[in-house]
Amino acid sequence: MAKKPVERLDPTQSTIKKLFAYSGNQCAIPDCQEQLVDASGAMLGKIAHICAAEKGGPRFDSKMSNEDRRSFDNLLLVCGKHHDIIDHEPNVKTYTDDVLRKYKADHEGRFKRAERQLIAQVTDTTQAMLPTYPKTLKRFGEVFDVTDSMNLDEEVEGLATFIGRLKELPLEERAFAIKLAERMRRRDVDNLPAEDAAGAFSLGKTKLRQHMNLLEHHLLGDITEGHGYQQYIVRLWDRDPGGNPWIEMLEFCDRTGIAIDSLVSDLNFAQYDA
User: Which helix (H) or strand (E) segment is 203 a member of?
Assistant: First the structure.
């Protein structure tokens, strides 16, 4: 199928509402205190494209579709001054797409966390976010250079099983598991001595076992006997088929600039496609 010609599409109303919901009424550029709407209700902010909507624009990416360019992930809310600054041609080398994506993730992440805290007061947090499942794994394959070697159906099935389990895991356990994964990744190991994990995260043995028992209940990890006398190790389980999904999430986010919360908390695994 031929790719559609480049055409500037306006953001949808739902996208605009979502942008404002996560803006906190503040410009997304770090240290800028400008409000997007003033006390009188006047609109001072502007919607900026991370990658331009039209050819020749700042940070234009020919690989993106028209829908990609107007999507929530490609837009951020900034004050009028910074809208002009980031798109001014001499500044584009400073305000790259990776830089702007980090600004967006950091800024919106603050207000997403506040939203999750509010939700946690009144509801089952595991039901507050519906996951979006990957279908093509196009970006995943490119990031890990496995497009030609992976079995797409098996990978999609393995990830769907993992996402279904992750969805039911309480948010506190998700946060703990990703911290474990970060430590395992730094040390290039696939398990940690229980004493190491307890010490690193200032946990007592009882609390550590509670975390790991919940992970085991959800078929995502466990604490088990090691090889030494009275030695115990903590593990995060690989998906079947596939690798360790926790490490994959960290690697994927590092290489793309995507916020880890968008996977672990928001369950937006469609990002593995686009």
Answer: none
The total number of residues shown for the chain amounts to: 274
Which phi and psi (to 5°) does residue 47 adopt?
-85, 120
User: Is 128 domain-assigned?
Assistant: no
Q: How far apart are CA 103 and CA 247, in angstroms?
A: 23
DSSP for 37-79 reads B-TT--B-EEEEESS-SSTTSTT--TTS-HHHHTSGGGEEEEE
CATH number at 244 reads 1.10.10.10
Same-domain pairing of 209 and 111? no
The model's pTM: 0.59
153-211 tens-digit pLDDT: 999 999 999 999 999 998 889 999 999 999 999 999 999 999 999 999 999 989 999 99
Asked whether the beta carbons of 13 and 70 are under 8 A apart, the reply is: no
Nearest to 265 by CA among 117, 156, 161, 101: 117
The whole-angstrom separation of Cα 77 and Cα 45 is 7
Reduce the DSSP state of residue 220 to 3 states and report it.
coil
Q: Are 64 and 81 in contact (CB under 8 A)?
A: no
Same domain, 170 and 109: no
